[in-house]
Amino acid sequence: MSLVRQIVAILILVTIAGAAWYLTAQTAGSPIAESDRADPTALVEIAEARTGVITQHVEAVGTLRAKQSIAIKANASGQIADIRFEAGEQVEQDEVLVTLDREIEEANAAEARAMLRDAEAQYERARQLLANKTVAQAQVDALNAAFAAARARLAAAERRLRDRQIRAPFAGVVGLREVDLGARINEDTVVTTLDDLSAVELEFSVPGIFYGRIQRGQAVAATTASFPDQTFAGRIASIDTRIDPIARSFRVRAELPNPDNALPAGLFMVVRVTLGSRPNAVIIPEEAVVAEGRSTYVFRVRDGTAERVEVELGHRQVGEVEVLKGLRAGDSVVVAGLQRLRDGAPVRVRQSRTVPTS
Question: Residues 170, 40: contact at Cβ < 8 Å?
């Protein structure tokens, strides 16, 4: 071997040996690597299971209905002579809303009254003569029948005269005018609408699984985007006796007081029905729960060790869940750092979260 080749081989060996020494020194002296191998403790956040009130409720959407609501129509045909209401006005029962032309019916009623007076006079005169045996009983009976017929004709004429006025059948709020002064209308013409808004009914549908838990008198709370800062309280007034076989739901009507007529018919609302509450439920944050297949569990921390605990969950509410089995109030559960946690692993608590009481 030549001198040049010997020198190159020596340089290569020295380079390899230096590199091996450097890597060995770096690995042996690295405090981070030693720390990683020596400290497998998981860093977690925990929260304490607490007792609180769990309120069970069901939410639905519905539409408001007036307590009473009709379309006002005339009982006769004719020309409108007077309109006595404004849209949105509160009217009383039997108040006149519209008057039709009345001249002919007034004349007919006057004629019927005159005929009644004549029939009555003839009948009374015949009764007096009957006492003296001047007239026959048959004639008196005929005059009595004529008197009764005259009364009936007057009653019919007065009824036709009353039908020339359109009245409110109950107290409520009238809607928009659908007719104008001087227009001719008939029995099919809608003059306006009338809604009794002293109380309103909110109709909504509830899933059939809650049928046995919805009862008359249960409290409801309703909200609407039209009044974003208000909640309207009421109670269930009626429940349908049938469940829709297609939608698998049933209809419910709740009554809401409406003394100032603020809530109109047809308004869309969100309603919450309170089904019941449990005052001493064990509650934990929802993020502590791990679902795996059919099992549900949490990690409970005791003496610096994570313990996997199977739990049975109950009702859920915003950010929290009820634990029916597996935990007691005061137990600490992991709410953050669950990713690589295993049963029996040592843990170090980074933060203990305070759960507000409800």
Answer: no
